[in-house]
Design goal:
With 480 residues, the protein is α/β, with parallel strands linked by helices. The protein has 14 helices and 20 strands. Helix content is 38%, strand content 21%. It binds succinic acid. The site of succinic acid has 9 residues, from loops.
Length: 480
């Protein structure tokens, strides 16, 4: 059982199956209290080189295990993550402010990636290709790409680790994790559970670092690291894409979004309001697939705005460790300032705050509903990553699809309608990797998550998620 209170291992890095002290440490601050929560190992190039060597050594044997052997460890990992649901939710509440009730849901989601990929590992089939020449047989096999390096964000400290590490480990790759500097403790706790599940040394390693660049540079320069996976901003993702070219690594990028939510006049208003609440205010809006533009059909706009405002006014904002809390603080000062600036800009350009629109104490921000938003407002083009719901009017389907697609991003979009023809028409016309039709939370471990355009490349989850860690090799066999 993890002893979260003492946090003995959690100030160390996890390298080659050992809990390692580093020369320096950095402080993780709890955004709800602004008090220090933990002191954590601050890794640099030396630790990165040691981890790369260990990942390469471990790959030699891990890649030779059968899918059944790997699945057994992944299944034990799944069970241990579930067993520690409360402790992990509490860590997340302390390190990044997610309410514990929501954190428990994330832990289940995180564990489910271990379970799904344990099973999916057994289905990494190759193919027999019909031959063009009877003296030959043509076939493909799938082999693990090699040691992988993953850079994960703070908004889903558990889910984003397992969404990357579970398919890598299931495929036979080894995985080095560089968690966000705001949330290293969750990552270390998850590695501890991997160790307890019987994960061999060097298969999963965690290197916290206050400055990720010197650590990342070691892995990008190392030809033996064959895969990079990153979730974060489009700006950083583009730099990593360029950086990975020198050693021709496979790369997956899950980047920023600017999700439109289209609510047609045939929507069930109460259900649509409840769905927007779930989509917009989970994790205080700090979600890549959170909606940034809510387009409401003109005839129902006023009624929708009124009902949404009422619901938002009743959101319980406060201590993330309190069972009654539904929304916690923003993760840090930078995130908080962005939300404040976006709302101030919208208000200065004529928007109306139906509720909220102001900072509260510390890093808490009032959940906000904005109407009458003018063109040129920053939050219509930039990702706010906060609890701000901007409502816009539309007249018809053609107009709203055009407005929804008018962005360089293409991660997630949402549609609310009971007209099946329209649901298909609009879902197909939206240029997004994920479309939720009457579904505000479409993510699932067994479905492909990822974007098009500036929202990234590659998919996580589903059988596509496993392919990201597999090379297809073709064998043409002459029959002597
Ligand atoms: C994300 O914000 O990238 C993750 C959201 C999800 O998995 O639903």
């Amino acid at each position: 059982m993890l002893t979260i209170g003492t946090k003995t291992e959690f100030h160390k890095a996890y390298i080659d199956g050992a809990w390692v002290e580093t020369r320096g440490r950095f402080t993780v601050t709890s955004p709800a209290t602004l008090e220090p929560y933990a002191e954590v190992a601050d890794c640099g190039p030396d630790e990165a080189r040691a981890a790369a060597d260990a990942a390469v050594r471990a790959f030699a044997s891990w890649s030779k295990t059968t899918a059944y052997e790997r699945a057994a460890i992944l299944q034990r990992w799944y069970a241990l993550i579930i067993e520690h649901q409360n402790q992990l939710a509490e860590i997340m509440a302390r390190e990044m402010g997610k309410p514990v009730t929501e954190g428990r849901g994330e832990v289940k989601y995180a564990a489910a990636f271990a379970q799904w990929f344990a099973e999916e590992a057994k289905r990494a089939y190759g193919e027999i290709i019909p031959t063009h020449d009877n003296s030959k047989r043509l076939l493909t096999i799938k082999t693990p790409v090699g040691p992988a390096y993953g850079i994960t964000p703070w908004n889903f400290p558990a889910g984003m680790i397992t969404r990357k590490a579970a398919p890598a480990l299931a495929a036979g790759c080894t995985f080095i994790s560089k968690p966000a500097e705001q949330t290293p403790i969750t990552a270390l706790a998850i590695a501890k559970l991997w160790e307890e599940a019987g994960g061999p040394p060097g298969t999963l390693q965690v290197l916290p670092a206050l400055d990720p660049v010197p650590v990342s540079n070691v892995f990008f320069a190392d030809r033996r690291i064959r895969k990079v996976t990153f979730t974060g901003s489009t700006e950083v993702g583009k730099k990593l894409y360029a950086q990975s070219a020198a050693t021709m690594k496979r790369i997956s990028l899950e980047l920023g979004g600017h999700a439109p939510y289209l609510i047609f006049e045939d929507a069930d208003l109460d259900k649509a309001v409840a769905d927007v609440m779930a989509c917009k205010f989970r994790n205080a809006g700090q979600v890549c697939v959170s909606t940034n533009r809510i387009y409401v059909a003109d005839p129902i706009y006023d009624a929708f705005a009124e009902r949404l405002t009422e619901k938002v006014q009743n959101l319980v904002v406060g201590d993330p460790l309190d069972e009654k809390t539904r929304m916690g603080p923003l993760v840090d000062r930078q995130g908080f300032e962005k939300v404040r600036e976006h709302v101030e800009d919208a208000l200065a350009k004529g928007a109306v705050a139906r509720t909220g629109g102001k900072p509260k104490e510390g890093l808490f921000y009032e959940p906000t509903v904005l109407t009458e938003i003018c063109d040129g407002t920053r939050l219509l083009v930039e990702e706010t990553f906060g609890p701000v719901a901007p409502l816009l009017r539309f007249k018809d389907e053609t107009e709203v699809v055009r407005m929804a697609n008018d962005t360089p991003y293409g991660l997630a979009a949402y549609v609310w309608t009971r007209d099946v023809g329209r649901a298909f028409r609009v879902a197909e016309a939206l240029q997004y990797g994920i479309v939720g039709v009457n579904d505000p939370v479409p993510s699932a471990p067994h479905a492909p998550f990822g974007g098009v355009k500036d929202s990234g490349i590659g998919r996580e989850g589903g059988h596509e998620g496993l392919s990201e860690y597999l090379d297809v090799r073709y064998i043409s066999m002459g029959l002597p």
